Amino acid sequence: NHYLLEAKRQNIALELLESERKYVINLSLILKIKATLQGPDVKRSTKERSFFPNSLRYLVQQHVDLLHALQERVLSWPRQGILGDIFLKLTNDENNFLDYYVAYLRDLPECISLIHVVILKEVEEEIKSDLYILFFHIVQRIPEYLIHLQNVLKFTEQEHPDYYLLLVCVQRLRVFISHYSLLFQCNEDLLIQKR
């Protein structure tokens, strides 16, 4: 039974790693689109206003680092693999990781309305809906971490060195999500409506 639990934990850790890899690809796609939209074709007047939340660049950097940390940990998974410490550090008050998500959620509605008004004429509808889908992924990422970590916790015995770490992370993410639930909701609604 003990070994089954460990195997299950390792699988969930691998799923988390895979989802992080996809997420980093999505983030870099947004930066690619951003680069094309800031090309010479877009009218000068719109260049000054940003279609993209300012926190994006920082988030990309943070998630690339997270991906490396997860890869290192998960691909050489020891008998008692630990994930909690990585997320503990990430959600720590000294780290601005969650603050940048708040900034992102606050900036997003304005960016969406700008994109809606300006980009309509500049590029095909397709790019716009791609962008909305990518933006949506970012809105949902923190709630996704909560689900992943709750899953790992479910298969972690109380004596396991990861148990307490995960418990604290899950608690922190829950508090964060409920604290900003209106911001999450408002952005999700906006994006669903635009799509």
Automatic annotation (TrEMBL):
Family matches, as Pfam families: RhoGEF
The DH domain extends over 8-183
Q: Which GO terms describe its molecular function?
A: guanyl-nucleotide exchange factor activity
Identify this protein by name: Rho guanine nucleotide exchange factor 33
Q: What organism is the protein native to?
A: Chlamydotis macqueenii
